[in-house]
Amino acid sequence: MDYRSLQDQKTILDHDLNNYDSFHETLSHPRMKAGEWTRAYQEAWKIFYSVENMIRILKRAATRRYWGIFSNFVWYKNAVQVEGGHPMVHGFFRLKGRRERRPGYPVEGRLEYLKRRVRDVGRTLLGWVKLALEMEEVWLATRPRSALEERVVFELAGIQKRAAEWRSLRLTELQLLYGKAVSALRASSKGKDFLPLRIPSRIQLWFRKWNVFQDSLTFTRAPMERFWKNVWGRFKQGEVLQIAYHKLIFMSLREAVLFCQFLLCFFRRSVAPA
Q1: Tens digits of per-residue pLDDT, 50-62?
Q2: Are the beta carbons of 47 and 53 closer than 8 angstroms?
């Protein structure tokens, strides 16, 4: 009766009852043109699950809830960004049988079906790559660190842009940042013994800079993305001899190790049963 009443009022925009699922625009709005409702809805999802907003939320979250919130972000962002639908009706990979068609629709030929599924899977895989890199960025900015490392990261973020890549700093500059961090933590402890805080020696910092497994001070992917953009630019211009291949090898290894660390933390903390 509701449908017939709306039909008589000529307010129906979509007569496909499959779209009456709470996230498709099916009725006209008294103060919004056709399409505006959908754009506002999509923009709301996009803003809430943006990298910046997820970082803000996780920085305020209690430590015990961190991975639960993080895994929900992955689930919801995958549904909205990769699948293009609502999280309550989407998973991570669609199984679409060739013969599983709505009544009245013709069954696709094998070749046509194969081509369509290859395109679908290709889009999904590319979407997963983008999603994984965005969630790695969120993890880098919010992952649990020691109090000293957290303060050093704070000091790093407060200085000039080039220092966003802590490995580009000289050893004396790194020691100075650690010194500032130790002083700030001791001052915040109000005269009490905070924790045994010690500034790393230059030898220790040198080993950290060249150890790909020591990346706890990395809080953003921006320097790494700038590096790859620069390499790609030189490659396109034919300046292959001007590429620093030793840095290319180091950065490739570092990216692989950092991404594996991210995946290991994610699956161990949020996916594995408690």
Answers
A1: 999 999 999 999 9
A2: yes
